[in-house]
Design goal:
CATH architecture of the largest domain: 3-Layer(bba) Sandwich
Structural class: alpha/beta
Number of strands: 19
Low-confidence stretches: 504-523
CATH class of the largest domain: Alpha Beta
Bound molecules: flavin-adenine dinucleotide
CATH superfamily of the largest domain: FAD/NAD(P)-binding domain
Strand order of the largest sheet: 2-1-19-6-16-15
Number of domains: 4
Distance between the termini: 2 Å
Number of helices: 15
Radius of gyration: 24 Å
Largest sheet: 6 strands, mixed
InterPro entries: FAD/NAD-bd_sf (IPR036188), HpyO/CreE_NAD-binding (IPR038732), L-asp_N-monooxygenase_NS-form (IPR052189)
Protein name: FAD-dependent urate hydroxylase HpyO/Asp monooxygenase CreE-like FAD/NAD(P)-binding domain-containing protein
């Protein structure tokens, strides 16, 4: 279920595993990929739901592991002229020289390109698996409403369609974004709860209409949140700001987010607190998750003061895994459920390429920053009055009224999600929330229930000896996990097929009739 990066990398690995298995299934494994969006293999960030100008958050060198990067850059080289002709004009102008010279590694590239590349990979792998008689993969555009246990594994329901399957991969991305609390109509035209629903371009079109209808002096937008999506929105809306003379305020706890700047030449990281932990680890001492968090927080605080935080974060992110062997089982669990997500939040990196554009917008007064946390808003005439809280929790209404208020305030906790499918799975007791409430509890085989596999952001908050996940959003992380999940699924598929042929019960306890279908549903 779901056809984003998580499902696609699992599917690619699964097809490779089935092809390499010593015991080939006597008949092709049947795999159905279901997504509510008609665009397969791109998901939300790498397809039409993100804007044409949306870029990777890190340079290509940081975005992908080496082997995948080599394949992707070979594809970029082959497709360069077509891609540059269709790219955002500003991006093409800034980076044509590097692209033509094949210097991709230092670039923040349009995310849609990765979606296009993945689609090409998946299409080729599906055709190959079909012609080798290994697997038949079908695509279905439908919203999955519920999943029930059935004799043969699971019954997956999408409207009137019922799909019987031996196994399910739940790869539906992050829980929905948190809705902005409001007094009055939460569906008012100028209120945007989720930038990417149904897509960034549609959100911008709605905003253009809303601002265009306001008097020129009232064309003000507030974006609540200072995360990567907020920065993406600021940049994507620059055409509207210019055209309509509108102004945009970014509301974030510390005012301008510390990471909305580029690394300065000569910026060097100093990480004394992490160096001290490294020394203790080298002496054979065990560490705690809280100590790791505190060291990261201390080094980050000092580097912000010294103006070296971009370099510091770039050095800290790859250093974190080196501490994991020094954590006991209890501390690994504390990292997965509590401190890991806090570390990830501290070490946020946003697209550096966007900063030059942001700077120009700030200089000419089109974008400004407001320190505080969003509390609520209420419609006043055709505008909104916004209430914020300061660092001590004191609330006040902002003096300015906004024609539009846009949310970028992160994801819902799983246990109180309003997403219908997750809600149904939780309420039916088929799955339960993980320790951090950012994902679902899974075993070491990636199963939230026997035969129900999970991949992607919903893995967050799990700690096992061979599986430690506090955050599973980056493509790198997903690519490191997907082959492991695929192995578990392939084992089950081959067992199901073997049992099917022998007329034995399937491993999940369901009786698979001889000659019956043997499906894996991969979303
Ligand atoms: C704006 C943005 C930018 C990002 N940029 C980067 C980056 O530069 N680098 C990086 O490493 N990571 C980045 N990430 C993080 C990461 O790559 C994504 O979170 C990742 O794409 C997750 O992939 P996914 O397949 O799990 O989820 P998604 O991409 O969300 O795909 C899930 C799919 O499931 C479908 N679906 C959901 N529910 C149902 C249902 N009930 N029935 C049918 N279909 C359903 C959805 O339509 C969707 O297509 C970014 C994330 C976002 C949101």
């Amino acid at each position: 279920m779901g056809a984003g990066v998580s499902a696609t990398h699992t599917l690619l690995a699964l097809l490779r595993d089935l092809a390499a298995a010593p015991a080939r299934p006597a008949r092709p494994v049947r795999i159905l990929v279901v997504d509510r969006d008609p665009q397969f293999f791109s998901g939300v960030p790498y397809g039409h739901r993100s804007g044409r100008a949306s870029l990777t958050l890190s340079t290509l060198a940081g975005f992908l592991p080496d082997d995948e990067r080599a394949r992707f850059t070979a594809w970029l080289d082959a497709e360069r002229d077509r891609l540059l002709a269709a790219a955002d004009a500003g991006w093409a102008e800034r980076h044509r020289g590097d692209a033509e010279a094949g210097r991709w590694d230092g670039l923040f590239v349009p995310r849609r390109w990765y979606g296009e590349y993945l689609t090409a990979q998946a299409t080729a792998a599906i055709a190959e698996a079909r012609s080798a008689g290994i697997a038949e993969v079908a695509l279905l555009t439908a919203e999955i409403d519920s999943i029930e246990r059935s004799d043969r594994g699971f019954a997956v329901n999408a409207g009137d369609t019922r799909i019987e399957t031996a196994a399910v991969l739940l790869a539906t991305g992050s829980p929905p974004t948190r809705r902005l609390p409001t007094d009055g109509s939460g569906t008012a035209a100028g209120l945007v709860h989720d930038l990417y629903d149904p897509g960034l371009d549609e959100t911008l079109a709605r905003l253009r209409e809303q601002l265009g209808a306001a008097a020129p002096e009232d064309r003000r937008v507030l974006i609540a949140g200072g995360n990567a999506s907020a920065l993406e929105f600021v940049l994507a809306s620059r055409g509207i700001l210019d055209e309509l003379g509108a102004r945009l305020t970014v509301l974030s706890p510390g005012g301008r987010p510390r990471n909305w700047r580029r690394k300065t030449p000569g910026e060097v990281a100093e990480l004394p607190a992490l160096a001290a932990l490294t020394a203790r680890a080298a002496d054979g001492e065990n560490l705690t998750a809280a100590e790791l968090f505190e060291a990261v927080a201390a080094d980050l605080r000092d580097s912000v003061r010294a103006g070296t935080d971009v370099a510091a974060v770039q050095a800290m992110v790859p250093a974190i895994p080196s501490f994991l062997p020094r954590l006991s089982d209890r501390e690994r669990s504390a990292l997965a459920t509590r401190h890991g997500m806090a570390i990830t939040t501290l070490l946020r990196q946003d697209c550096g390429d966007a900063v030059a554009v942001l700077e120009a917008l700030v200089e000419r007064g089109a974008v400004d920053f407001q320190a505080g946390r969003y509390v609520g808003c209420r419609p006043v005439g055709r505008a909104f009055e916004v209430t914020i809280a300061d660092g001590r929790g004191e609330q006040r209404a902002l003096p300015v009224r906004y024609a539009a208020v846009v949310g970028a305030v992160g994801f819902e906790g799983v246990s109180h999600t309003g997403a219908p499918l997750l809600r149904q799975l939780l309420d039916a007791g088929i799955v339960e929330a993980s320790g951090s409430d950012a994902g679902l509890r899974v075993d070491e085989q990636f199963q939230a229930a026997p035969g129900l596999y999970v991949m992607g952001p919903l893995l967050a908050g799990n700690a096992h000896p061979r599986l430690l996940v506090w955050h599973a959003e980056s493509v790198r992380r997903i690519m490191s996990l997907a082959p492991e999940a695929a192995k578990s699924i392939a084992r089950e598929m081959i067992l199901v097929v073997e049992n099917d042929l022998a007329g034995a019960p399937s491993p999940d306890g369901g009786a698979v009739a001889l000659g019956g279908a043997h499906d894996a549903t991969v979303r």
